[in-house]
Design goal:
Blueprint (H helix, E strand, L loop, with lengths): L5 H9 L2 E3 L13 H14 L3 E4 L16 H19 L4 E6 L3 H13 L4 E4 L9 H12 L4 E6 L10 H8 L4 E7 L3 H13 L7 E4 L5 H6 L1 E6 L2 E12 L6 H11 L10 H17 L9 H12 L18 H11 L6 H11 L1
Parallel strand pairs: 1-9, 2-3, 3-4, 4-5, 5-6, 6-7, 7-9
Antiparallel strand pairs: 8-9
């Protein structure tokens, strides 16, 4: 099995800002390599500790035969990260999304190993006909090729509900390094944390929030689980989020600020108020009012307003902003100006381009 680089593992375990990168297309819905590289430069210069590519925000449709962009996009993003690492003598966690049944997942994981990714995010989407036993076996097979980032994907995005017992079994697998928790549900989030706490490998599993609707609270919360009379503590070390694909410099600055609260000190009321503002902004970007129909287009719209993307084009022409979504993005821009990083982008955009 390919091993995660030691420095990348250290960054992952310590907690990092990991944006889930969107796909840059031009007006003809063709791959825009220049803008894709620009986006990577934005994240890296903003201070992101890693980048996730070929994930939901990158659009699963990149894998369709008629689109055929999976390899191209992954290579482009990882190549740009490699340039940054060499220039700055700094390690960035390189994460590649992997999905499908065993044959497809193995093929994608093999490719991720070939292009020197550090870890793969193994999606449970699109495999509803597999049993939990079969999904666990799939994870074991992939983990023999690449270190695995487990994934609790919300049902509205193609995921399914899993029990605490499932997460214990997943955490028990050698080669599973971390788990992204994104059910967008408090009960299911607690089940995942409890399941990991029940595993003998609990201390080897790093938890990342993917709950875009509850980011800051997840990062501030200490979970305590009773395991045979012993209290096990777990925290979310960092985030792997589509929401963090925009306003990333502000995210990095806030993430560094809240690290101090891991020592158990009292959480100030203003941070709790800020958590609500972030969730409200996410509701506009992700189009929560319409069942997340415009989630990817909403992220594109913010990047377009900043000049990083030329437009909001998605692979599917029908995938665009919902009615009223642009106005909602206007509103959160006006209501929470402290959350955006427009001035940072404006300062450096010409250099990144």
């Amino acid at each position: 099995m390919k091993q995660i680089r030691s420095e990348a593992k250290k960054i992952l375990n310590n907690g990092a800002v990991i944006p889930a990168i969107p796909l840059a297309l031009d007006e003809n819905r063709m791959f825009d390599e220049k803008r894709q590289r620009t986006l990577v430069r934005y994240y890296l210069n903003a201070g992101a500790g890693g980048i996730a590519v070929a994930v939901h925000t990158t659009q699963f449709a990149i894998r369709l035969p008629e689109v055929n962009l999976f390899h191209t996009v992954v290579k482009t993003v990882l190549d740009e990260i490699d340039h940054f690492e060499k220039k700055n003598n700094k390690v960035i966690v390189k994460l590649v999304g992997v999905c499908g049944k065993v044959e497809q997942a193995v093929s994608e994981a093999r490719f991720a190993a070939e292009v020197n990714a550090d870890i793969v995010l193994l999606s449970p989407g699109g495999i509803d006909d597999l049993t939990e036993d079969e999904i666990i076996e799939r994870t074991k097979i992939v983990s023999k090729m690449m270190p695995v980032f487990g994934f609790y994907l919300q049902p509205l995005a193609g995921g399914r509900i899993f029990s605490a017992g499932y997460w214990k079994r997943l955490a028990d697998i050698e080669g599973v390094e971390a788990i992204k928790c994104a059910p967008f549900n408090r009960y299911q989030t607690i089940e995942l944390v409890r399941g990991v706490a029940l595993s003998e490998r609990r201390d080897e599993i790093t938890l990342y929030t993917g709950n875009d609707d509850n980011i800051l609270i997840d990062l501030l919360t200490k979970y305590e689980v009773n395991v045979n009379g012993r209290t096990i503590e777990k925290r979310f070390a960092g985030g792997l989020l589509g929401h963090w694909a925009v306003w990333t410099k502000s995210v990095v600055d806030l993430f560094e600020k809240i690290r101090a609260y891991r020592d158990g000190r009292d959480i100030p009321a203003e941070l709790l108020a800020l958590a609500v503002k972030i969730t409200d902004a996410n509701s506009a970007f992700f189009d929560a009012a319409n069942g997340y129909a415009g989630s990817i287009a909403g992220v594109h719209e913010v990047l377009r307003r900043q000049g990083i993307f030329k437009g909001i084009w998605c692979i599917n022409p029908n995938e665009t902003l919902s009615p009223g979504q642009s106005e909602e993005i206007d509103r959160v821009y006006a209501d929470y100006p402290e959350l955006n990083d427009d001035e940072f982008v404006k300062t450096y955009l010409s250099e990144w381009l």
